[in-house]
Structures are given as C-alpha cells and as structure tokens.
C-alpha cells in the first residue's frame, strides 16, 4: 500500500531485482555484486543488501587516514602519503603520491596544508599543498616510540591548533599551526593518554587515558579527563575502572568510551554516566578504532567487522565484514573516516588486505530505540531511506504490524523516552497529535505494512532534527496498541 505524505510529493517506487554475485578478486571471501559493488558475506544469487563494500587497491600497509573535501590522505609505514580521489562513489582511486620526510604514523590536513608525524613524535612536519617545501617543528621530548597508527596528531575542529599525544610520557603538546610554534605542554594527566576528542562547541577537550594492561587496568586506570581549552586547566576526571579503554568518540556534549567488553556514554559537562549499550551487545569484542558521521557511531570489531551503533546506544544497527585476513596484522582494521550527510560512505584502512575499503551504508535516516510487540509478538518496524535534502527522494516504510489495522504516524523535533507501560515508550518530542492515519495492508499479525514515497520540498531548514514513530491499533497488544521504533534524521 503506497501513499503520498501531505507535506511532500508522491514519487513512484520500483522493485529491485536480486543481482548476481561473484567473488571479489581483491578481497577473497567477500562477494562482489555484478553491478560493481561488493556485498559482505553473501552467497551468489542472494538478495542485494543495502550495505556494500568494495576495495581501493594500490596500497602496501595503509594506516592513518584523514579526509579533506573529496580527497583522502592515507599514510603508509614508509615515507609517503597516498591521495585518493573520492569524487565518484564506487570509482575511488589513488590519484597521486606525496613523498614525506618520515613514515607518517599520523597525519592531518588543515587550511590546504599537510602535516605528518612519525612514531618518535619528536618533530612535526608540514608542507603547503600541492607543492610546498617541507618545514619542521621540534616538539617536547624525550619521546619513546610507540606502534600506534593514528590518534597521535589531533586537530581542533575550528581553531588553528593541533594536539600531539605523547603516550608514554603522559603529556600532550599544543601546537599553534598559524604561528608554527609549540604553545604549551599539558602534563596534568592520569596514565597513558591515548585519545583526544572535543565537545560540539570546541570549548572542552576530553582525554582518554587507557591505563596499563598489566597487572590490570583497574590498578592503573583507565581515566577520562576533561580540560577547558581556553585555560588548558583540567575541569574534572572520571575513574572508568575495569578493562583498558580502547577508543573515545564525542557527539555534541556526550562522550562515548569504548572498551573490549562495553560501550558507555558520559556527559561532558560534568562527567556523569548516562547509559551503556545493553547486554548482550555490550559484550561485543570492540576494537580500538572508531569514527562518526554525526548520525551514528562506527566502531571496529576484533574480527575485522565494522559495527554501526546509534547514539542512544539502543541497538547494534549492523555488523559488516570488511577484511578477510583478520589475524595477519592486529587489529585488522586500522583507521576509519566517514562522510557526513547523504554520502553514506565509510573509508577503512586494512593493512591485512593492503587496501582501503569503502563501506557504502544506507544514509540520511537512523533508527533508534525499540518498539513494543503487538499480536503474536510481532514488533512493528519503522524505517526510512533516501536523502533529506532539498528535492531529495525519501521512502518511509512501516512493516510487521497487524494487517488491516489502523496506524498513526507521529512527528517531532527531538527524541523522547516516555514510558507508556507494557514495554511501550513514546519516542518523539514534543508529544502531539499524529500527522496522519493510515490503514495497513495485509491480513493477520506481522503482515501489515504501508510505504510512503515522497520528495523533499525545495527549501528545507538545515540541521533541523525530525523524529518519527508509528503506533498501530492492535486488540492483541496489552495496551490495545503497539509502537514502532523511532526514526531520526536531519535536513542537510
């Protein structure tokens, strides 16, 4: 059953035919869609997955990776950086190679300037792109070499500053990129600083100290310290206890701490614990790397998979096979970076497969939280695909409901968690009347569905958050109705 949402314009829907698959010559065990993309762990003849993976060849031991516009800069463990042109999805290629004065264990690109640093971390190098001469800046020392791709040289999101982590010395250098001077060295740290992230406003810096792995992390860390960037004074620290920390990511004023056995969220304002990924998902073997596209978390799994997790830590959205030789180098996935908005691509460096993998994900819309069951235990599922931009095509689908029942679609501008009883929660904010009511097609529990095909209007409010949730009238549900999960998106 198809409808036109009254806010938008109806567009036709087409049924995709399952393509054929052949094994990827670049990544054995990963099957390439005959149309040119690669699907993780699918057998020939299977239905086309929404998530696809393909590999960019031309690398030896790729590690650190950063994105600047449509270009990727990828460091190897030899003195060079490979520049990847990503302007055409599915046809990414190594466009040029830049010779560097040191093996770039980490790098960044800011204001059309390339910065690189090696394992010794005693000198920072820079050159103007594309053809400037290399310049050097001495950093604080002495420095013990550490084998860690990436997460050493971290740029501030808006200021002309970069932060250099000296893990074994328990210090962080602050470099003014505009004056090309070492501005300060932060030493008020707990033990083994390994990750730096910033709050949304760029006024706070969060530092994750991983702690020692022997005799136990509980005895020597881990620790989360938050600094005021105007004064470089530590505001507070949180004793994370337990296993060694692996990764730190932030989203607005939330900090996400990744460890091998759990994923937890803290408020950056005061360090208070918010929530964690629920069991059994919280026992996943997380790796030490991750990124975000501003919509969800992308995390490494120790078996060479890319994990997608929503910011509310309510569900594991996907686990995508990326590499095939997971134990040649460990961790199997080195670094990753993502495109924001409607691009949907995540780029992953794989030293095992000597490639940069491109994970093409559904984009624009994120499912969050969980719905509650109706007749025969079926949980209604709300989903949306497409691109929420001006004139963007969007499809909204409700499935797994009671056939022929009435349904109601609610719209908000934020998320909610109102307990309605019997496992049902109202997930959109503010609470208001539904924007439309539709009957479901089909007959019987789990068979009800509808699809709305729309086109976004010519003018959309950029960065406005929209949330959706559906309710279904269902006499077989404890409350007489059941609720879907939530769907969230931002206009781009």
Under the CATH scheme, which architecture of the largest domain would be assigned? 7 Propeller
| H/I helix tally | 1
Please tell me the overall pLDDT.
82
What's the gyration radius in Å? Answer: 24 Å
Q: CATH-wise, what's the superfamily of the largest domain?
A: YVTN repeat-like/Quinoprotein amine dehydrogenase
Number of strands: 42
Report the helical percentage.
Answer: under 10%
Percent range for β-strand residues = over 45%
List the uncertain runs. Answer: 1-50
Largest sheet: 5 strands, antiparallel
CATH domain topology of the largest domain? Methylamine Dehydrogenase, Chain H
State the shape: globular
Strand order of the largest sheet: 33-42-41-36-39
Structural class: mainly beta
Number of domains: 2
Our measurement of the CA-to-CA distance between the termini, rounded to an integer number of angstroms, reads: 29 Å
Could you explain the architecture of this structure?
With 492 residues, this protein is mostly beta strands. It has two domains: 340 residues, Methylamine Dehydrogenase, Chain H (7 Propeller), CATH 2.130.10; 125 residues, Sandwich (Immunoglobulin-like), CATH 2.60.40. The chain has one helix and 42 strands. 44% of the residues are buried.
